[in-house]
Amino acid sequence: MKRLSLLVTVLLLFGCAHPNNQPIAVSSVVSEVFDGSGYPVEVCDSSYVGKPANCILSGSGSSQIIRGNVISDGKLYVGGGLLIGNDGRIKASGCKLPQEAAVTLDCPGSLISAGFINLHEHIDYSFQQPPHPPTLKWKHRYEWQKLSAAERGFDYWAPDKKKSPDEWTEVSERAMLRHALSGSTSISGAKDFRAFLRNLKLNTDSLATPYGKPVEDSTFPIWSESKQWLTAPCDTTQINAIKFDKDDPYIPHVGEGTNDGARFEIGCVLDAIQSKTTPNAFIHVVAIDDAQIERLKTQDVSAVVSPRSNFQLYGATAPLVNLKTAGINMAIGTDWSPSGSLTELDEARCLARYNRDRLNGSFTWSDIHRMMTENGAKAVGLQGQLGKLAVGEYADIVILDSAGRHSLGEVLENSALKETIAVFIGGRAASFPSAWVGKLSELDNCSPDPRDLCGQQRTVCGGDAQRSLTKLLQQSTYTIDDTKICVPQPTDDCVAL
Ligand SMILES: [Zn+2]
After folding, report:
1. pTM over cut 0.85
2. What is the pLDDT of residue 32?
C-alpha cells in the first residue's frame, strides 16, 4: 500500500501519461486506494485503508480530533480528520488539521460519516414485525387500513397514549434506541420523546433540532374519517382544511398509493403550501406524475422516500429516476417496522438493491449516502447545521468499521450494528465501546447496554433520566429481536414486485 501511496503522490505532483499519450484521470488512480463511489477522493494517508478499524484514544484538551476515512463536505479524505470544538461544531476537516491540544480518536480502517437523518418514522408503531411481507398489494393506504389483520396479512397498532402511557413511552424509546445504535443521529416522527438521538420535533436541548424551529410531521394532511380517497382534485374548502404552521419545516405524507386518489393528494398539498416560505418535504410521493414533479421543483419541495414499505404495501415506489432527473432534493426514511426497514442503512440498501436490479444503477452510492445525510438536512432546513460534516456544522457522526473494504459502496452495503463502532451527537459520544467511558465528551445519562449486542460491550447515552436502560429493555411489548440489526436486513423484498 505504501508503494501505491507513493505512486499516487508522484502522480498528483507530476501528472502522468498513458502509453498512448492520453492523460490518465488522477481520480481513476486514487480510486485504486479507495473508491468514493461518486465522491471525489483525496488521499491524505493511504495506510488508513485495507484493514479492519482499530481506534486508539490519546491526548487531552477541550477539543477533539477524529481521524479515519472521512466524508466531509462532499469529499472523502483517506486518512483525513475532523477537529471538533467544545461547542460541538466542526472547526476544521481534511488532510491537515490545525495543531491544537485535543483528545484524539485515531481510527485507521474506519469510515467516518455524518450521522444518518431518518425523516420518516412512526415511533410508537415501530416495535413489531410481521413474520412475512404481506402478499396482497394495494392502490391506496385506505385499502389496507380498512382490513382486519388476518385479511391484511400483518398487524399494526400503537399502545394507547392515555390508557398505557408507560407502554407507549417504552416501545417508542426502544425504537429510538434501535435507530440511535445503528447510526441515526436525527429522527422525525418521534412524537415528543427525548431519547438517544435528536428528535427534530423538539427545539429545546442537546437532543433537539438545531434549527430552532420544530419539524412538523403530518401523517394525514387530508383526513377522511370514512377512509375515502379523493376522486377529484381538491376544491378551495379542502385545500384550506390542510393545517400546518407556516413558520415551521413541514413534512406531510402525500401520494401514498398508486391510484388517482393518491395522486390528487399531492396537488392538494402543493396548492396548500403555495405561499409557505419555510422548508417543505413530501413523504412517499409514490403516485406523483411528471407535472407534479415540476411543481415540486418550482416550489422547492423535497421528497422523502421509503421504498421498502412502499414495495411491501403497494408493489411500487416513487419514480426515483424522474425525481432525480428533475433535480428534486431526495431523502430517505424507514417508515415503521410493520412494513419498513429496521434501520436507515437497511432502507438505503433496499434502495440500492432496487437501483441495481431495476433502475440500471442510476444512483451511485454517494447519491444514496447523500439521501441518508445532507439531503435529509436540506429537506427540513438544516443545511449548514447537520448532514455534511462541513466546517461550522454540528459533529453528528457515525464511525463504521470498513473491515478492509476499498469502496464506500462496499462499506455501506455490508455495515450494520456489528460494524458501527461509535455515534456522536453534537461532538458528544452517544453510543461507543464501554472501554472509552470517561475518556471522551459524552451525552448525559450514559448506561452500559447489558445485552452486549453483536458481542460488543457498548455504552449508550442520551436516555431519559426517568427510565434506566435496564428498565427500558425489560418491557415486553417491543417484540423486535434487536440482534437482527447486527447484520444487514435481506433486500429480496425490494425487488420482488
Ligand atoms: Zn409513514
Report:
1. yes
2. 78
